[in-house]
C-alpha cells in the first residue's frame, strides 16, 4: 500500500509546498483595533470548542466549498477569543501590564486581532481570500509561539505587585485559552494544505493499479483515535 506522497514520487507529481509559514507578515492586511472593537468582541460568549467542531467539514481532501466553510467557521471563533484574552490582560494591575514582557504579549494579541478585523464584516468567499486568511492563521500561530514563557518571565519580574495565586490562576486560564485558539488556527492550516484546491496530489487520480493509503488525519486530528472507544 502506497501513501499519497509515494504515489506522487512514482508519477512525477510535484510534492505539496508549504509557503505560508514563511510568508512575510508585511503582506498581511491589518486594521486599527479600538477599545470599542475589543469591548464589543469580548462581550460575545465564547463558543465551547468540541472535537465535532474540528471534524465537521469532512475528511480531507476538502472541496473548495468545504474549505471556505472551514475558513469562515474559524473566523467566527477567533476574534472573540482574542478579545477575551486582551480584556483579561487589561484586568491585571497596571504596573504588571506595564512590564515589558507582559506588555509584549498584550501587543501580540492586539496585533493578531488587527489581522482578523479586515475579515470580520464579510465572509470568505473566494480561494484568493482563503489563501490570504490562511497566511493570517500562520502569522497568528507564529506570533504566539512563546506566550506562556514570556508571560511567566514578566510575572516573575513583577512579583512584588501580584500574588503567586493570582499568577497561577491567570496562567492556567491563559494556557487553556491559548491551546484552544492555536488548535482552531492550526486545524484550518492543516485542512488548507490537504485540500483539493491547494494540494497537487489531489488534482490527479492515482493509477488504478496502485492502492492509496487513506490518511487517518482530519487536519491535525487523528481520526482513527476518535473512532475507538475510550
UniProtKB/TrEMBL annotation:
GO terms for cellular component: mitochondrial matrix. Keywords: ATP-binding, Kinase, Mitochondrion, Nucleotide-binding, Phosphoprotein, Transferase. Residues 1-24 are annotated as: Disordered. Signal peptide: none annotated. One of its GO terms (molecular function) is pyruvate dehydrogenase (acetyl-transferring) kinase activity. It comes from the Eukaryota. This is Protein-serine/threonine kinase.
Amino acid at each position: 500500500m502506497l501513501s499519497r506522497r509515494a504515489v506522487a514520487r512514482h508519477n512525477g507529481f510535484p510534492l505539496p509546498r508549504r509557503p505560508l509559514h514563511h510568508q512575510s507578515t508585511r503582506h498581511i492586511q491589518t486594521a486599527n483595533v479600538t477599545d470599542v472593537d475589543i469591548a464589543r468582541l469580548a462581550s460575545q460568549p465564547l463558543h465551547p470548542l468540541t472535537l465535532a467542531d474540528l471534524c465537521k467539514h469532512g475528511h480531507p481532501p476538502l472541496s473548495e466549498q468545504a474549505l471556505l466553510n472551514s475558513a469562515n467557521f474559524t473566523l467566527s471563533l477567533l476574534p472573540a477569543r482574542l478579545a477575551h484574552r486582551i480584556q483579561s490582560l487589561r484586568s491585571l494591575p497596571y504596573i504588571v501590564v506595564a512590564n515589558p514582557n507582559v506588555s509584549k504579549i498584550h501587543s501580540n494579541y492586539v496585533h493578531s486581532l488587527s489581522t482578523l478585523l479586515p475579515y470580520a464584516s464579510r465572509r470568505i468567499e473566494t480561494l484568493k481570500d482563503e489563501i490570504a486568511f490562511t497566511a493570517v492563521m500562520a502569522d497568528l500561530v507564529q506570533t504566539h509561539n512563546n506566550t506562556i514563557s514570556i508571560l511567566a518571565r514578566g510575572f516573575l519580574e513583577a512579583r512584588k505587585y501580584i500574588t503567586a495565586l493570582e499568577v497561577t490562576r491567570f496562567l492556567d486560564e491563559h494556557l487553556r485559552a491559548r491551546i484552544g485558539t492555536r488548535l482552531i488556527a492550526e486545524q484550518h492550516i492543516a485542512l488548507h494544505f490537504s485540500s483539493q484546491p491547494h494540494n497537487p496530489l489531489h488534482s490527479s487520480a492515482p493509477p488504478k493499479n496502485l492502492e492509496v493509503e487513506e490518511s487517518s488525519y482530519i487536519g491535525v486530528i487523528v481520526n482513527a483515535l476518535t473512532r475507538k472507544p475510550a
